[in-house]
Amino acid sequence: MSTLTALDIMYDGREVALRWADGQTRRFHALWLRDNALDPATRSPENGQRLITIGDVPLDTHISHGELTDQGVVLTFAPEGKAATFTADWLLENAYDHKAPERVGWIGSALETWDHRLNGHVPSGDFQTIRQDPAALADWLASVRRFGFAKLTGGPAESGALLRVGELFGFVRETNYGKWFEVRSEVNPVNLAYTGLGLQAHTDNPYRDPTPTLQLLYCLENTAAGGESKVIDGFRAAQRLRDEAPEDFDLLSRHCARFEYGGGAGVHLTARRPMLELAPDGELIAVRFNNRSIAPLRDIPYDQMMAYYQAYRRFSHIVDDPGMAVSFKLEPGESFLLDNTRVLHSRNAFSGEGSRWLQGCYFDKDGLLSTLSVLEHAQRRAQA
Ligand code: FE2
Predict the structure, then answer these.
(1) Between the N and C ends of the chain, which has fewer C-beta atoms within 10 Å?
(2) Computed over its alpha carbons, how large is the radius of gyration of the chain?
(3) Distance, CA 347 to ligand 1 centroid (Å)?
(4) Which pTM does this prediction carry?
């Protein structure tokens, strides 16, 4: 628990500066504090939802009085005459008085990018263990959050077992491919993924809007020669492009590509999105890359189209660089879950001898992060 040691009410109460025992100081605006008051008239004690609109907060809100307590600070807001308590921990967790990121393409501190050096250290969990032990489930889900993927071993080698993995953290995202789809050699495939060809690393279904954010690939048979699964950290690849050729990174992030799929009866999916998607503050939030489903590019200015192609080619070379890849062979009952907004996947070519049968399905990342957040809160409560 953190402790506040000083309170300075500034600018006629429109701002305050708070100092913590470790010496750090954070400023807050009175309007922001009033809007975020945690009293039962502002936020529902039952569900935490806000009970007021921004219009209910007076524009001339200022702090008329403030007092430090053991837990934090009590502030009185004028003209409402409302007193609200804020704990020192809550204020520190929600503080916004910090420098804006300087470089585009930054990623959150909870993420860790990787390259081929992760070979042999692939994050992994055991199906039976994570089913029974919430701490083990939290560890496995946290690996997916941190690295963008994790392997799971020890599952049943049964058709449909992938749904039992998904039940542990979320809900299936059903598509025109069904609740789940089969990945194995076919004589007349409707999608190149169903042949024995090697595939360039890609994110799945960039032609959907929104794109599926998680994919689970579950192995049922794998006696074919080759066919190892391969993953590439798209965020590492994007940051490498940014560092090696910033102008190329700008081109791929500032212009929309187009993606399209019309390979099945009654289906025609299109989406217009950048290959490298940034938040307005420059955070790298998604990579879309799929040579099989990129559509004719129509949204790049004429005089920049050749430069865009050069950037696209450079990014493709980075994706193909063996130094970026992590490979592993899945045995029956093994699977891996990946963040489809970040991690590209592929497989090596495999021969027609023996068999390779995977099942895949999509989930959404918000469900996984919600499950993980609940597990982590429960762990913190148990430790407190
Ligand atoms: Fe795929």
Answers:
(1) C
(2) 25
(3) 9
(4) 0.92
